[in-house]
Amino acid sequence: MKNKIGVLVMSYGTPENMEGIESYYTHIRRGNKPTEEQLKELTDRYEAIVGGVFPLRENTDRQVRTLQDTLNVDPRSADLEFVCYQGLKHAAPYIEDGVEQMVQDGIKEAVGIVLAPHYSTMSVGSYVKRAQAKADELGLQISFVESYHMHPKLIEAFADRVSAKLNQFEEAGADRDSVRVLFSAHSLPERILSVGDPYQEQLLETSKAVAERAGVKKWQFTWQSAGRTAEPWLGPDILDTLQTLNKEEQVEDVLVAPVGFVSDHLEVLYDLDIEAKSIAKEMDMRLERIDSLNSDPLYMEALSDSVITLIGL
């Protein structure tokens, strides 16, 4: 009988349906219900995405299933059986639920990994903290992959997508080398920089590696989806970056590569595909986005290899 290793696959989470948006938003706000105006704004964003919220949740479920399959076909894991469990930050099954289910299933050893390649104390760090606390409470041995932002297969997967979109620009008559590539990620409060958080540095490392592999001539990094709080967040925001490129450099073709995201999240499908595209259109600027990784085999292999390497196989 093969030794079972539990893999807690963690991500931000999304509501399962339109009716779940309020409770989801309330959890994000630490138990404080949103105002009617705030709730309407978020609901409108989900409704604006083709298909509503359902594809978002189904996509995460598929990533977990595909990772389990990928782990179990790796030759290094021949004597093991990997079983993946989902743990979400702001929706059920919560991170703690995933840990508890592993223990109920008799798992003795586990690995945690987040569907986000770049480490920050405010993002991946918070997932790890919650999972570790529950594991300690239940006596489960668990270790964590904290980042995999420079895994060769992750870089290859992103670079392939950048190259494919640049080919489309070229086919449409644009000068490939003149297309401005904007690498982006979810902004975080500026205070992370004062504590030496590696988030920004890791994102720049990924962006540089992807640009080099894809032969990108002109690229820069920008932020997106900042929270609406009183404290300053990392910038510039992509909407401001687009305005600057239009006014100061007369850039006509832009390709956005949101390397901070690995799935078709709300921040990709709305903030980029609807909001940023609308701003670009107003300026007669062509804006395209690379396809998300989702369950891409190379991405699944990057995750799988990170897990298998961590346990020393």
From TrEMBL:
Enzymatic reactions: Fe-coproporphyrin III + 2 H(+) = coproporphyrin III + Fe(2+)
Superkingdom in the source lineage: Bacteria
Alphabetized InterPro entries for the sequence: Ferrochelatase (IPR001015), Ferrochelatase_AS (IPR019772), Ferrochelatase_C (IPR033644), Ferrochelatase_N (IPR033659)
GO biological process: heme biosynthetic process
Keywords: Cytoplasm, Heme biosynthesis, Iron, Lyase, Metal-binding, Porphyrin biosynthesis
Binding, Fe(2+): 186, 267
Residues that bind Fe-coproporphyrin III: 12, 29, 45-46, 127
Pathway: Porphyrin-containing compound metabolism; protoheme biosynthesis
EC number: 4.99.1.9
Record localization: Cytoplasm
UniProt GO molecular function: ferrochelatase activity; metal ion binding
GO cellular component: cytoplasm
Family: Belongs to the ferrochelatase family.
NCBIfam families found in the cross-reference section: hemH
Function summary: Involved in coproporphyrin-dependent heme b biosynthesis. Catalyzes the insertion of ferrous iron into coproporphyrin III to form Fe-coproporphyrin III.
Name of the protein described by the UniProt record: Coproporphyrin III ferrochelatase
Organism, scientific name: Paenibacillus glucanolyticus
